[in-house]
Amino acid sequence: GSGAYGIVWCALDRRTGKCVALKKVYDAFGNVQDAQRTYREVMLLQRLRHNPFIVGILDVIRAANDIDLYLVFELIEADLTAIIRKNLLQRDHKRFLTYQLLRTVAQLHAQNIIHRDLKPANVFVSSDCSIKLGDFGLARTFRSGFDNEQEFLDLTDYIATRWYRSPEILVKSRAYSTAMDMWAVGCVIGEMLLGHPLFEGRNTLDQLRLIVEAIGVPSDADVRSLHSPELETLI
């Protein structure tokens, strides 16, 4: 698969004879922002390496061109997107996956980590229906004692993950919290139940329209609390 920052292959580790997931991060140190993002991802994965619900990082390899970086991960059979598309989930599967997902996200938040890119494609499922959460490229830590809020001004506007973005992210609120992960978790659970994405917006405005139709127009107090001039204009 491929994303905004790199591409992932299934590869053979000739030292162990095992298949692994090999992620190539393009121009990992090209500028300060890219270098910080790469460093954060590696450090967070190292910190979480003993968590059985997180895809384990096995190695970090700097490319021969001294520009790109390779991250070696354990290989999991499938991701939740593919499983939902193939309509393979029975009721008990959905309940077990939901429990594991909620537990994993709760563990992250208890360690002051916000994933920020939760979606079915980042939930990997093994043959025994156990999950591992992956792709921590956008994850951030937050300070305890700060009401679980932090300003993240560099949140990347991923087109592919629009369907799982919380309303405060869609309107570019300057302050948000672990609630953004919980919104995404709700969208993932909804997709498992329905067999298709909960809110399939064609663009940001359409995404907001679908959300408002489902949960209602926010109150004036809600709008003010988001500190978003864009939202005041839209409403």
Automatic annotation (TrEMBL):
Pfam families: Pkinase. One of its GO terms (molecular function) is ATP binding. The keyword NADP does not apply. Keywords: ATP-binding, Kinase, Nucleotide-binding, Serine/threonine-protein kinase, Transferase. The keyword Kinase applies. Residues 1-235 form the Protein kinase domain. Signal peptide: none annotated. This is Putative mitogen-activated protein kinase. It comes from Leishmania major. The lineage of its organism: Eukaryota, Discoba, Euglenozoa, Kinetoplastea, Metakinetoplastina.
